[in-house]
Design goal:
The protein is α+β, with helices and mostly antiparallel strands. 27% of the residues lie in helices and 22% in strands. The strands form three sheets. A three-stranded mixed β-sheet has the order 1-4-3, covered by helices on one side. Strands 2-7 form a two-stranded antiparallel sheet. Strands 5-6 form a two-stranded antiparallel sheet. The N and C termini lie far apart (32 Å).
């Protein structure tokens, strides 16, 4: 695989991550229980490398907080990266990135639940990092 298509998994402090959308709290609790049961973190959270805005994985970030993890695996990306595409969750139409940045960075507000859908090509990598390492 060529370097421009591969991803690098980084470990960042939980404070680095900025929520981008509201979550379903019940789903966060279920996910935290599942992660705790397995004892490993398997799905890195893709984030904007400059701002820490979560592209996909708001539930995972909240689950990490519930599990009192200090660090979380992530993939650092940029919205101008050709491997990243963003569409509106319901319509499938392209979603303007400024509509993500403005409320989060400008007003400190997150988008409604399931506003955006991020796709990554190729698919993001999986991990198997023991939770003890992330505490």
């Amino acid at each position: 695989m060529s370097d421009e298509l591969s991803y690098c998994v980084a470990i960042k402090p939980l404070e680095f991550f900025r929520s981008s959308e509201h979550v379903n709290v019940a789903d966060v609790h279920k996910l935290a229980a599942t992660i705790a049961d397995t004892g490993v973190w398997t799905t890195p959270i893709p984030v904007d490398r400059e701002t820490g805005i979560i592209m996909d994985g708001n539930h995972r970030a909240r689950a990490a907080a519930l599990l009192r993890l200090r660090y979380v695996p992530c993939v650092l990306l940029s919205y101008d990266d050709a491997r990243v595409s963003v569409t509106h969750w319901r319509t499938g139409e392209p979603f303007r990135v400024d509509r993500i940045y403005e409320p989060i960075l400008g007003a400190g507000q997150v988008l409604p639940y399931k506003t955006t859908r991020h796709r990554f090509a190729p698919a993001l990598p999986r991990t198997a990092i023991e939770l003890a390492v992330l505490r």
